[in-house]
Amino acid sequence: MEDHGQVRVRVSRQVHRHSAQTPRWHDDQQELSNPFPVTNGVKQGCVLAPTLFSMVSSAMLHDSFQNTNTRISFIYRFDDDEVNIRIVKVSAAFGRLLDSVWERAGIKQETKLKVYQAVILPTFLYGCEAWIVYQRYARKLNHLHLSCLRKLLRITWQDRIPDTEVLSKANISSIPTLLAKAQLRWTGYVTRMPCTRLPKQVFFGELKNGK
After folding, report:
1. For the whole model, what pTM was predicted?
2. More confident residue, 36 or 128
3. CA distance readout (Å), 208 to 155, 201, 204, 211
């Protein structure tokens, strides 16, 4: 990887040589600390940071695949393995907060629901904009979603409270609804892109041959 970007790395090192930082430290944001040298990495907020990341990533991919026939594959359709992995991750994330949040008496239910929306739902839905989900997989995810909410709200199956009322009490939509909203939001975002953008070209593209 050293052969790909040594010149660029040397240039970036020269840019940051003898650089220093003076962060604001007072509440009124007016007073600055004494300058101190930056000896590790790049300065906070440096515009070179994403460029350096792209350079290193490009070099790593080039070195990894230049002498092989391996290709990078993209998962665009949910299958049993992906659903099971997602269920395990959600269950683990929910379980880690069981004693410290969900079953802790000193935390308000409203706060617990906000934590659920901030931590658990993103684990459910990460990358869902690009999913092609069958109904049976959405039902499995929604079953776990409702089980978590019932435990959070202290609703047992013996209470005979329907799922719709559980969602209403939590003021949270079902997983199929959240999936639809996320995908519609992403569709609108892609539709508003300029026609020169690759995501829009792929989204509205058609196969030249076949079905």
Report:
1. 0.64
2. 128
3. 54, 14, 13, 9
